[in-house]
Write a structure and sequence with these properties.
alpha/beta, Structural Genomics Hypothetical 15.5 Kd Protein In mrcA-pckA Intergenic Region, Chain A, 46% helix, 14% strand, globular, aminoacyl-trna synthetase
Length: 410
């Protein structure tokens, strides 16, 4: 191997293209010049770069917001680099305080195991599983032991740790900070040492932890990794970041019809950010589509295309087509082809009790509220009488735009 190709590799068109892929939609690439050198060296030597993404299995399901970084991993994977999907089974025992003003309760080993079992299966809907290295950080973290942990802790100062925004803000406010929380960024950084990472990805809220990896790699005599942060995706409300706790999310294991309809519910403005971060269309294709909309094309056409792309990724093209047809049927007041069949007894039965028993309303009071709001239909007719009793028979009952049941009452 020509040593000059290693130390001063040429910046080819392929390297420039790889840099453009890296920068698409990203918040920061630190330091960009080092990443270009790594890409050029990889191109010259044929040795893939090692690209790491760590996720703590704090919940059993992944939502579309999580796939922003997974999409970037897939784009880099398609360029021929080695991606490492790291499950933080050890760091989950500590609890990451990033972006929080209180300590996150650590999970039990049993919770972590249950959640981790579904993570990789779901991530494989985005990543190519045949080309993905899956690792668990307990592999090298547990053998460290007390001596290794003390030695690791000696490589970073308390003053530097307190520069982290959430620690600084909590200390200033007099809020408690537990000593074990200092271990989290150290352990995440040590993951990069153990994996000899060239690039680590994460959300903008992970920047401090990602930079810790660079620092510790230098401490251990390794070439420091570069870091690439991706924006946090706003959820369906267009305001808060996508989160299950805010109920503004799309789970990637949701059924195709719900997924399609939820994408269509986002605003026309938010749609373009979703295109940039979630679509695999080229930036040129997205720009052309946006120009068509600005020239007068209905923005719904672009939103339908995005909804079909996302739904097809997690289901299939056929499921996306069927979801589109289901949405059209519902928007016209039609009944979807496949709706739950429910058998009830007790005719004549009050409409409130029927809605609750059929699983269309969580309670009688909520059923009354839905009726007051005009959100309940029986055989396509709006129900306005909360005292309505239904005789024996079969009815198509609808709540809102998406909930249907064919109820047979005896």
């Amino acid at each position: 191997m020509n040593q000059d190709l290693v130390t001063n590799p040429p910046i080819t068109d392929r390297v420039k293209m790889a840099l453009a892929v890296s920068l698409r939609g990203c918040e920061e690439l630190i330091p960009q010049d080092e990443w270009v050198k790594k890409l050029a060296r990889s191109e010259a030597t044929g040795v893939p770069l090692r690209i790491k993404l760590g996720l703590d299995p704090t919940a059993p399901d992944i939502h579309v917001g999580h796939t922003v970084v997974l999409n970037k991993m897939r784009q880099l994977q398609d360029l021929g680099h080695q991606v490492i999907f790291l499950i933080g089974d050890f760091t989950s025992l500590i609890g990451d305080p990033s972006g929080r003003n209180t300590t996150r309760p650590p999970l039990t080993p049993e919770q972590i195991k249950v959640n981790a079992e579904t993570y990789y299966r779901q991530a494989s809907l985005v990543l190519d599983p045949a080309k993905t290295e899956i690792r668990y950080n307990s592999e090298w973290s547990e053998p460290l032991g007390a001596t290794g942990m003390i030695q690791l802790a000696s490589r970073y100062t308390v003053a530097r740790m307190m520069e982290r925004n959430d620690f600084h803000d909590r200390f200033k406010a007099g809020s408690p900070i537990s000593v074990h929380e200092f271990l989290y960024p150290l352990m995440q950084g040590y993951d990069s040492v153990a994996l000899k990472s060239d690039l680590e990805l994460g959300g903008t809220d992970q920047k401090f932890n990602l930079l810790m990896g660079r620092h510790l790699q230098a401490e251990y005599g390794q070439e420091p990794q570069c870091i690439l942060t991706m924006p946090l995706l706003e959820g369906l409300d267009g305001v808060e970041k996508m989160s299950k706790s805010k109920n503004n999310y799309i789970g990637i294991s949701e059924d195709a019809n719900s997924m399609f309809a939820k994408v269509l519910s986002i605003s026309d403005v938010l749609m373009w950010k979703w295109y940039l971060l979630l679509s695999f269309k080229s930036e040129a294709e997205i720009a052309a589509l946006r120009a068509e909309v600005e020239a007068g094309r209905n923005p719904k056409d672009a939103k339908v295309a995005l909804a079909k792309e996302i739904t097809a990724r997690f289901h299939s093209a056929a499921a996306a087509d069927a979801a589109e047809q289901d949405f059209i049927n519902r928007s016209k007041g039609g009944v979807p082809e496949d709706i739950p069949e429910v058998s009830l007894s007790g005719a004549p039965l009050g409409i409130g009790a029927l809605l609750k028993s059929a699983g269309l309303a969580p309670s009688g009071s909520e059923a009354s509220r839905l009726i007051d709001g005009g959100g309940v239909r029986v055989d396509s007719s709006v129900v306005s009488d909360k005292a309505l009793k239904l005789a024996a028979g079969t009815y198509v009952v609808q709540v809102g735009k998406r909930k249907f049941a064919r109820v047979t009452l005896a």
